[in-house]
Amino acid sequence: MIQKLNEVMINETSAIKNLLLELENQHKCIVTSDIFGMEACVGRIKEANKDIAHMEVQRRKITENKAMGPIIEEAKDSELENNFYKIKQLLHEVVLQKDTNELLIRQGLSFTNRMLNVLNPAREAKTYNGYGKVRK
Question: Is 126 domain-assigned?
């Protein structure tokens, strides 16, 4: 069981590294405003996520849906423990990169919306509400 679990975790590590690489490519496309490159990244990120999900299903079959912490403590295998911490570290990096990409996309959309509002302002008449503030 421990050997199979190690193999699955090694495969899962490589799948997570692939996802991190795709997220970094997406980051480059966002920074350089490469729209078509960002669109191509979406499909590759989805494929990387499918690979990770497949590895996770295999791992859960082996561990019978038990938590990894107690399994690692019982096994007392340094390679298994090392693989588990590698996966945790990579997942932390993936979440950080994903959040960075989302923030950059939101920032770009906010800037675009502001520019559109400057170029094409609302044409309705401004009125005052009950508090004396202008309603937009």
Answer: no
Span 89-122, pLDDT tens digits: 999 999 999 999 999 999 999 998 888 888 887 7
CATH, residue 64: 1.20.58
pTM for this prediction: 0.79
Residue 59's nearest CA partner among 10, 99, 24, 126 is 10
Q: Is residue 16 part of a domain?
A: yes
Query: Where do we find the tokens 């989805």?
Result: 46
Whether residue 62 is contained in a domain is answered as: yes
Q: Is the dihedral of CA 60, 66, 71, 74 positive or negative?
A: negative
Neighbour tally for 14: CB within 10 Å = 13
Is the Cβ–Cβ distance between 93 and 22 less than 8 Å? no
Domain assignment present for residue 135? The answer is no
Closest CA to 26 of 50, 43, 49, 51: 43
